[in-house]
Amino acid sequence: MTAELVRGQNHPLSRTRVEIRVSAGTPVLALASACDDAGRLAGPESVAHPGARSLPGLQVPQAVAGEHRFAVDLDAVAPAVHRLGVLLVLPPGGPARFGAAPASYVAVADPEGAELAGYTLTGLESETAVVALELYRRQGAWKVRAVGQGYADGLGALLSDAGLGAPAAMALAAAVVDAVAVAPDGAALAALPAAPLPAAPLPADAAPGAPLGLPQPQSAGAGTTPAAPEQPEPVAVPVSGVPYPGPPGPAPADSGDSDEGPPTLSYVHPRRRRSTTEPPEPAPRAAEPEQPGRPPVPVAGDASGWSMEERLYNQVWGMFEDLARTVAAYRSACDFAESRMDRELDEALSDPRHRLGDSGNAARDEARARHDELVAQAKAVLDRDLAQLIAESEVVEPALPAAYARWANPVWHGHGVPEEAPMALRLGDLHLPERPDLRIPMLVRVPLERGLWIDNGRTGSEAAMTMDTDRLRRAAMDMAVAHAVRLLAVHPGDRFSVHVIDAAGAGAASLAPLVEAGVLAGPPAAGAAGVTRTLEELTRRVDLVQMAVRAGAPEDLPADVDTADQLLIVHDFPHGFDDRAVTRLRYLADEGPAVGVHLLMVADRDEASAYGPLLDPLWRSLMRLSPVPDNHLADPWVGHAWTFEPDLPPRGSRVLEQTLERIAATRRNARP
Hints:
Layout: E1 3-5, E2 10-12, E3 17-35, E4 47-48, E5 54-55, E6 58-59, E7 65-73, E8 83-89, E9 105-109, E10 115-120, E11 129-138, E12 141-151, H1 155-161, H2 166-179, H3 308-350, H4 359-396, E13 424-431, E14 440-445, E15 451-455, H5 462-465, H6 469-489, E16 496-502, H7 508-517, H8 527-550, E17 565-573, H9 579-591, E18 597-603, H10 616-621, E19 622-625, E20 630-634, E21 641-646, H11 655-670
Parallel strand pairs: 1-10, 15-18, 15-19, 16-17, 17-18
Antiparallel strand pairs: 2-12, 3-4, 3-7, 3-8, 3-9, 5-6, 8-11, 9-10, 11-12, 13-14, 13-21, 20-21
Helix pairs in contact: 1-2, 3-4, 6-7, 6-11, 8-9
């Protein structure tokens, strides 16, 4: 039985020798791309096209035709290749866009001819090149996913989006044109559209409000202009991989502003360096042999990476993407069933033959039965995928290192101060309403490229509206302290200095563990004078480090400049801040992360409303978090509204105090 896929849906492949079938309804070129686990091309040689038809495990057709068939041997695919894309390109001389041609159908079949999964490419308009399907590895097994990502600017834009630079993408697009310069009927082919030059990376000194170094998310649907999620707000979270088919996400420029669209979760770390001389550690194999027809046995660290930490990080990324796309496919199938039932009911009511007798009732019952059958099928697929993800989560969660683990994880009881910084930091959990008990760790890359804002206001959150104001503010400050302790605990002992501004002293109870452990750079700053002094010191440090870096002499800093990274916790902003202090805070938020000064604010935006739009860039530059469950975050693939829940130490636990004691002891022993 063929699995009819909708955009974003995946399906396991029971065979490693399969056949790709394309029925386009108009002459097209069928190409293939071989990408790494991040969905990126290693170079032009990673694309099979009429001028270079072969890749390990497959050979694409040479001619332009309305129907194509080519075999794929997944066992022969290179180990570094994790995603095989099936690309369709309109040649010049035919329809100018996919929207003007009949919908294409792409299927994966077994060698005997039976189709395993098929996908009809609907919703395309101005696109001239499209990623139809991808075959991808997951936990040692292969799956097929319906992608349907189209590009109005053609093959060059598609290749550029998959990681090739603009010159290489345009050159390869031209090579494809040259290889089919004369069609089988003798008609000359014009040049395919070239890719536009990609936008330059955002500099570290970008204008206020622009996300520092964060790429824009790509839509999982057709078209080249991704649509921002309508209701949640943007955020940054885990994984060194990149959502297919382009750089992942987050963060629209207004990611901190819940009124202007949701933030997306990003797993990108552009500065992550990998050794070029040492091979990556092999991913662990399943302890039990896989049995035909059964899903692979989940194994912690079953992802690519150069260390167990990176493999676990990438595995979290894979779980996050799988859950997003699985739920998207289920919701899409339910919407389709609903719309089809509505259409059939309308037709039944408009047919005069159904106005008398029982034929109308029978037609309506039949339409509802078909609807229920489709929904049941979609629910069965959803339950299957969720069961596999839950099984994977049950083996991954206990294996996470302290930086990624919940405070309740026993790893914290034996955790010592590390010698190296981690790749990422856990801030909480994410879940969807279809399965609230399936939690995905929300990780944010370190060093932090954006500051954090813990919103202790009640506006815009149903959970916050039902909570007493004092309890909400205490919860927000407790959350900030927990994040600060985690940051200190997972970095070398001398890596961070922590400063606190608590102008009115309202956060004293939450700050007590930090103060008593002696891990702060100084007592919490109180009053307007304390606010001014702390901001002046950190602003001076940013200025001096920037000048030293620009001069190429970072070692020539004055002796009184603390070279450790700085974390500034600001409580109850804007209390105690005058206009000059507000300007300095904005400067630290914009310029500080690039030189090791990071901001953690606990604030209610409504309390700063007197400043009007002056502070909008500040809020947008920070990643907004909530001390209570809130669905203000969106993923970069399909834009689901994810519920975020902070990770806090269990009630009655002394894990926070014990961790601070170890940090303080390490710092004392390190002093001469």
